[in-house]
Amino acid sequence: MLPNISPQQKTAVTLLSIGTFLEFFDLWLYLHMSVKINDLFFPPSFKHSWLLSNFALCSAFLFRPIGAIIFGWIGDTLGRKATILITTSMMAMSCAVIAILPTYEYIGVLAPIILTICRGVQGIASLVEVAGARLYLLESSKPPTQFFLIFLVSASATFGRFAAVGLASLIELLDLSWRIAFMFGVVVAIVGTVARRALKEASNFSNARKRLISYMSDSSKKVLEKSPLLRRPINKSSLLFMTLASMAPNTCLFFLYNYSADFLRSKLGLTPAEVLNHNSILGLGEVLSDFALGYLVLKFHPFRIIITRSVLHLVVIFAAPFVLSNAQSPVSILILQTLAMLFAVDVEPGGVAIFYTKFPILKRFRAVGMSFAMAGAISYTLCAFCMKPLTDRLGLCGMWVILIPVWINFNIAIFYFAKLDKKTRNNEDIM
Question: Which residues are in the Major facilitator superfamily (MFS) profile domain (predicted)?
């Protein structure tokens, strides 16, 4: 049975889910199209093309801490809605530039530089998107409805990734220009910007701002300094453990869509079109699994689901090198990917709702934004630049050097927040 959701919450989750879908569609469109366009912007004749193409991929995550600082302040000062509208517009502009950008053949090294900057802008926009949408719903609802609403937004990100690989596969199947895909991304981002103008500011954030203003009725600085809304610090331990927990989903996604795609091309000889078709099937499975998780989060506490999936994921980690080394067809790899996706180490469903409440509301956007940004920057950069060299040097078991420590850190973080949540479950959220 679905939880009791008010009309305003239905409107908010619909608009936020649409926007998150659009943002992640645009962000992941490049990742899937890269199997086709990398040679155009990073040709093999270009010195260090592998290094630079990986940097372009990672730039979507490396620039996120900058966005966390800028938009964290905007989100905690001007509001959640303002940041969401600004970043959706940024996504539209970056897609437009990529769509019309001349390749390396025409403008030389300027092409990959501009492309990398556009990817950085997309990364910043998607960071604020997912953090802003989750915070908006967190501050507009209460548990257990809160867990379900926030998960719907996260599931829309999954659907956005699936739609991106589906479009990329269709473009390749019909032998159309890759630029059409990015022009479609522009349209998608513009639609998201217009649709979200109907959002109202999150109620909890608005109430906190009003209480802060009441402290400022006397312009005395001493009165303002006594405000508990400003004096409550960000817990550094909570920030660290949330960052460790958030690294795991990024590492899992890299294995599913980046490392596996490279393995399919280099070891099994699949063409870019075949890799895209393969990933389309995997993406569909990811969407379907989200429906199951959405049902489970209505029945069980989020941490029970998260810990169960994590334990089963460890089995997949140990099996992965042996499955890959004996793979004779893409089917066996698809089965491995599907198991890794079903039993992913992920803070969803519902975990982020518990994490975010452990930070003061008027500093919350900055805290969760920086944590999410640093987790993506560290994990994707580590995977992109280290996983392939490790497996080349140590064999496929070399992936354990990254995957096992990430898994351990994830579980330490989950148990930290589970213990913290047990202490504060009957208290009000930190304000």
Answer: 12-422
Q: Considering only CA atoms, give the Rg of the chain.
A: 22
Distance CA 33, CA 37 (A): 6
Distance CA 358, CA 403 (A): 27
User: How much is the pLDDT for 47?
Assistant: 65
Question: And the tokens for 306?
Answer: 């998260």
Q: What is the mean pLDDT of residues 177-187?
A: 83
Per-chain mean pLDDT for the chain = 78
Q: Identify the pLDDT of residue 422.
A: 79
Question: Which class does domain 7-200+232-422 fall in?
Answer: mainly alpha
CB 58 within 8 A of CB 381: yes
Contacts of 407 (CB under 8 A, 6+ apart): 248, 310, 313, 314, 317, 345
| Stretch 113-131: mean pLDDT | 78
Average the pLDDT over 255-259 and give the result.
86
Within 13 A of 200's CA, how many CA atoms are on the CB side?
Answer: 11
Q: What pLDDT does 223 receive? A: 44
Structure tokens of 232? 């409550």
Which of 369, 72, 358, 363 is closest to 212 using CA atoms? 363
State yes or no: cis peptide before 249, omega within 30 of 0: no
Query: Positive or negative, the Cα torsion across 275, 276, 281, 282?
Result: positive
Q: Where are the domains of the chain?
A: 7-200+232-422
The residue whose two tokens read 């989950």 is 414
Q: pTM score, two decimals?
A: 0.76
Alpha helices in 351-394 (DSSP H): 351-356, 364-394
pLDDT for residue 231: 59
DSSP class of residue 357 equals: T
Alpha helices, DSSP H only, in 174-259? 178-195, 203-215, 221-225, 228-231, 236-253
